[in-house]
Amino acid sequence: MTKREDGKETRKRLLKTACDVFAEKGYRKAKVADICRQAGVNVASVNYYFGNKQTLYKEAWQHVLENFQEPVVADTDGGSPQRRLRRHIQTLIQNFTAGGDIGLFSRLYLMEMVNPTGLMQDAWHEIIEPRRRELHDIIRGIAGPEVGELGIKFCELSIVNQCRMFVTIKNSDLEYMLGQPLKPDLIKRLADHIAAFSLAGIQAVGGRRD
User: Fold this and answer.
1) CA angle at residue 44 from 38 to 47, to 5 degrees?
2) Angle at CA 74, nearest 5°, toward 209 and 100?
3) Distance CA 128, CA 173 (A)
4) What is the predicted pLDDT for the residue at 67?
5) What are the tens digits of pLDDT across the range 68-89?
6) Quick one: what percent of the chain has pLDDT higher than 90?
7) What domains are defined for the chain?
């Protein structure tokens, strides 16, 4: 392997390790020395390849975003707002419970949410806005035209925060609260419940029942 290829492999290994450490500890608690030790490189490597910890964090996020692919929920139920809501919630929960790059993204996102750095605000808004617009459109289709923009956003927050429990509450605590192991079938049933609960709430906000 040439020196240049060695450098590419070192940089790639350092970046992958940084993703894992930042996802586990967050930006502020993650130490460059720990990242380098786990990657099997010397501490000077961060300065050589990235310049500083801040740039390493930004590139770690970018690495995860470039490899991020949402799971596709089969569209077997048609295109009504109610059915779109169920699919949207299923996808959110799949994201929050997935492994691999999707799971890594969710953990990085949680750490940034709990202890915001402001370093990823622009990139995050670029990623999240299309998903928000889709969900707003779904909610409007259910709630009706009488609900204002702020009411739509209140519904959005209610839905998203129900789904976020899979990253904000430890699995062991969820299992304790539910009284059984958090297996795929139980996660699906919980997703169905969140969808039904959210649908009823949106209809109540809109002052109507289907």
Assistant:
1) 105
2) 115
3) 28
4) 66
5) 655 444 444 558 999 999 999 9
6) 54
7) 3-61 (1.10.10.60), 81-205 (1.10.357)
Nearest Cα residue to 16 out of 82, 54, 89, 67? 67
Residue (of 65, 72, 167) closest to 126 by Cα position? 65
DSSP string, 74-140: P--S-S-HHHHHHHHHHHHHHHHH--HHHHHHHHHHHHHHHS--STTHHHHHHHHHHHHHHHHHHHH
> What is the average pLDDT across 48-60?
93
Q: With the C-alpha atoms ordered 191, 134, 67, 23, is the resulting torsion angle positive or negative? A: negative
Residue 207 DSSP symbol: T
Total length of the chain: 210
d(CA 74, CA 81): 15
- What are 112-135's pLDDT values in tens digits? 877 888 887 777 777 778 888 999
DSSP 176-206: HHHTS---HHHHHHHHHHHHHHHHHHHHHHT
DSSP string of 17-62, one letter each residue? HHHHHHHHHHHHH--HHHHHHHHT--THHHHHHTSSHHHHHHHHHH
User: What pLDDT was estimated at residue 1?
Assistant: 44
